[in-house]
Amino acid sequence: MQGKSLACEAIRRQSPMQRRDFARAAALFPFAGAAWAQTPAWPQRPVKFILSQPAGAGPDILARYVADQLGKSWPQPIVIENRPGGQNVIGAQAAARSPADGYTFYYATTAAMVTNAFTFKALPYDPVKDFVPVRLVGRSPFVIAAASSFQAKDLAEVFAKAKAAPGTITIATEGPKTFSGMLADSVAQMGGVKFNHVPYTKATDAMQDVIGGRVQLVCLPDAALTAYLKAGQVRGLAISTAQRQADLANVPTLAETFPGFEYTGWNGVFAPAGTPPDIVARVNRDLEAVLKQPEVTQRLLALGSIAEQKMSVPEFEAFMRGERERWAQVVKTLGITAE
């Protein structure tokens, strides 16, 4: 109490001008303290999305569109950085080694975050430990199709031909240990047959050979096949989603032949491990707002991706756990060994 009395006495002895200055300082002090304690608003500078695919590839087109829409709600732009090569390894490694400061994200596909772990003996990144899931963007169906000249109107007739002449049915894929290759082998195994893979690095090259009759079947993302299907150059035999898709309503689902079967690729956003949780939550919420817009949904569908309109961070984490478990079973069933 004595200290308080001495302080009050000191204030009374100040001149009127000194007392006014003291009052002004006291009034300003709380605001100054709040400013010191406040975290700077995010983002303060451009945000980067790293991709494992080259510019112009399907995932790149999707990522640029999503980034453009997402950037409209942020005061800073989103920059796309393409790091292709090594079956997604180069881009994934670059993203994993980036600072976990909320300014670098990895726009990834199934291969980099799930299947690579089963097809490579060693990876320079850990899909589980090096990243945190942010938001699933969309799912990408795959289609199995045949050249219009190929004498099989559905999967049942394909299986019949393969059984009548074992080893003669060829299928264009991205390779036996890729998403499309493992889908093709899963379908063949369920049908009791075997397809011979003809691997391609470019979808356009694969389609030229299928249309020309040099390869009988093709298994690729529907975005790569839709134009050819609508032009009547190839015939859709099955799509990998659980339900038929509006833009390819005449193509039956694999589930119609094999009940319960669903096998889709996907694309999503991940952050380097250690990224602040509040920034991860913010990006998840902002992406959800974008993906709920009807015009965005329609555009993604045209690009071959079915927008995921609702998925929280915990839900995406659970989704990823399920994907790893599912793919572990697929790889085991097909007898695929890591190299």
TrEMBL record:
Domain of life of the organism encoding this protein: Bacteria
Signal sequence segment: none
Family annotation (InterPro entries): BUG (IPR005064), Bug_dom1 (IPR042100)
One Pfam family it belongs to: TctC
Membership in a protein family: Belongs to the UPF0065 (bug) family.
PANTHER family (UniProt xref): BLR1237 PROTEIN (PTHR42928:SF5), TRICARBOXYLATE-BINDING PROTEIN (PTHR42928)
Name under which the protein is recorded: Tripartite tricarboxylate transporter substrate binding protein
